């Protein structure tokens, strides 16, 4: 009977020979084994990571018995350099309630940050550090409007305080909506499966060209860890918001000149729409004839105008009304439809500048 070597033994021997020849061949470099996708990941990370910073939020708290004031950590997150002047972008919820904010650069140097502007509505904070002796590198801005589901994205952040970590994924969905700390709806949000964990908040979401396309802001997970559903505020929102935060320190929104009743009270009264509680003297709403809640001689309370539409778009709560107003600038004319004493009224109102 003719004897032969087992197939598995031959295959194993070939593998050992090939591995030995590769390790002995000095001409073979590790980079020769990188795929084009891996090379892209490395290139983007190396270019962008110097612009990613560690954000530490601390509060002052009085000790219970000694009454001494001490500084305690409240939280941490990620941010990134907006430009070479020292502007830093992060999430509002990362710095919320802070008495002191510290920015740690990739060089390891830490600097106390000054708050330039805050927008709880968009979950964005704009900070600034003074670093005259260190060159700062901002991230190139991409176009979030050009994204499509399936495009590769990369997130850089400090998850669980592990600095400068890279995760890779794709755009899972576009035009999502999430709630901010102020209970306002943030629209046009990017959904991604790139792992986003606690500490990633405020970090950049990048495309394969290394351009900023979003700010990582939250995850959907019962455990608090990444479950493949993360969200990022699009860079198109930043392009509109950052100039407003620089100039005014807040979101700049055209106003009607009204104070509204809270949505919770409206729900208790089974009212669909925004109840005008009062109108401000000298503002467009008053000039147009809108009225707020009033009391008659017998002490009975009467509702005034209840806003139910703006330019034909239905309004059911304050969040919806504010979102519609944010699409306009001071000086724009809008048509306000309201319900008062069971009568439908229409007002043509020129929006005013907000109070400074």
What report would you give on this structure?
By secondary structure, the chain is of the alpha+beta class. It has helices spanning 7-24, 36-48, 92-95, 235-248, 263-268, 284-288, 318-325, and strands at 52-62, 69-81, 87-90, 100-104, 110-112, 114-119, 124-128, 152-157, 165-179, 185-192, 204-206, 212-219, 230-234, 258-260, 274-279, 294-295, 301-302, 306-310, 313-314, 333-340, 343-350. The strands form 4 sheets. Strands 5-4-1-2-3-7-6 form a 7-stranded antiparallel beta sheet. A 6-stranded antiparallel β-barrel has the order 8-9-10-13-12-11. Strands 14, 15, 18, 19, 20 and 21 form a 6-stranded antiparallel beta sheet that branches. A hairpin with a 7-residue loop joins strand 8 and strand 9 (165-179). It is elongated. The model has no long low-confidence stretch (mean pLDDT 85).
Share of β-strand residues: 35-45%
Strand order of the largest sheet: 5-4-1-2-3-7-6
Report the mean per-residue pLDDT as an integer: 85
The low-confidence parts are none
- SSE series: HHEEEHEEEEEEEEEEHEHEHEEEEHEE
Q: How many individual β-strands?
A: 21
Evaluate the radius of gyration.
28 Å
Classification by helices and strands: alpha+beta
* Residues in helix, %: 10-25%
Distance between the termini: 99 Å
Global geometry: elongated
Total count of helical runs of at least 4 residues: 7
Biggest beta sheet attributes: 7 strands, antiparallel
